[in-house]
Amino acid sequence: MAAELEPLKMEPPEVVEEAEEAEGQTKSLKMTEDLLAMVKKLQKEGSLEPQIEDLINRINDLQQAKKKSSEELGEAQDLWDTLHKELDSLNGEKVHLEEVLSKKQEALRILQLHCQRKESGAQKQNMLQECTEKISIYNSQVAENYRQKKLGLHVEEQLENLMGQHKDLWEFHMLKQRLAWEIRALQSSKEQLLAEEKLARAKLEEVERQLSLPPEVGRARAVNDGLKAELEKFGGQGPAQIHCIPKDEACKVEADPELPGALSEDLEPPPEQ
């Protein structure tokens, strides 16, 4: 508001007085000239005396006008003084308001700087807090990853142990199955051998019984051939071959050299799967 105030453009009283005096002198000269012209005119016409009263009235009017002009000039001077005082007061108020405005602007600038510093500090604090939270989250993730890795290693060790135990159990189970199969194979071979031995003994007893009868060479040879055929029918080759000597009427049993190989082949376990 103070910045918008402008000083009033007023002329000093001396200039005003000179202007008014010049204007009054101009008017007086003009009126004087008018009076002189009127006097000359009356002199020519010969009627000067009747116009004296009119001249006196005009002079009185001029004096009153001069007095009125002087009063108006005094009032104008007083008004100018008053306005000049008001102008000085307004100029002083303007200077005071400018000083207040400057102080307010300086305070506002300081306050803005303080606010900017506080905002910058708050932003730094927020950034620091965010960084702290991120570091905390990262540390938690690292700890969790380490725990999971450690747990995974522990689980892997347990799995390896279980696999080793399972492998041992499987090998033991397979060995048990193999032993059971071998035992069954041995029992089967034993039963087969016992049956063959029993059959061979029965045949041998039959042969001995037949040989104990009256000797006949043809019949003994036929019996010997029939016995060989029956033995080959049962097992290819029996556990023993019977050789009969017709002239001595006696028989002897020779062990078959291929029998142990056949038995060992029967006792072999099946291939592991």
TrEMBL record:
UniProt lists compositionally biased (Basic and acidic residues) regions at: 1-12
InterPro entries associated with the record? SYCE1
- What processes in GO biological process is this protein linked to? synaptonemal complex assembly
Coiled coil segments of this chain: 52-107, 176-210
Any idea which UniProt keywords this protein has?
A: Coiled coil, Meiosis
Q: Would I find Coiled coil among this entry's keywords?
A: yes
Q: Which GO terms describe its cellular component?
A: intermediate filament cytoskeleton; synaptonemal complex
What protein family is recorded? Belongs to the SYCE family.
Specify the protein name.
Answer: Synaptonemal complex central element protein 1 like
Q: What is the lineage of its organism?
A: Eukaryota, Metazoa, Chordata, Craniata, Vertebrata
Instruction: Point out the gene that encodes the protein.
Output: SYCE1L
